[in-house]
Write a structure and sequence with these properties.
Layout (H helix, E strand, L loop, with lengths): L1 H12 L2 E3 L2 H10 L4 E9 L4 E10 L2 E7 L10 E4 L9
Parallel strand pairs: 1-4, 2-5
Antiparallel strand pairs: 2-3, 3-4
């Protein structure tokens, strides 16, 4: 049942592609007015922060993760989310 629900969520959300932070930034540079959703979480065990960034590009949802804050282009419209959830199969 849980697997079926995850598959439905993936179909509803479209293609999600995880890429390296450098590739993510390169794509943002190509966009005239990029929109990025970002979220920050803390690993309680290691006490380190993890940053997630998500944008869309040509019908794909692109996501990247970094242990450092990325320097986004100035033209970027930023939405800070409490959490970014991705369906996992």
């Amino acid at each position: 049942m849980a697997a079926a629900n995850a598959i439905k969520a993936i179909r509803a959300s479209g293609a999600i592609v995880q890429i390296e932070p450098s590739s993510f930034l390169a794509i943002l540079d190509k966009l005239e007015s990029p929109l990025v959703v970002t979220s920050q979480s803390k690993d309680l065990f290691f006490r380190k922060y993890q940053y997630q960034y998500m944008t869309n590009y040509k019908g794909f949802v692109l996501i990247t993760e970094s242990n450092k804050i990325l320097q986004l282009p100035e033209k970027t419209e930023l939405i800070k989310a409490e959490r970014i959830w991705l369906p996992r199969v």
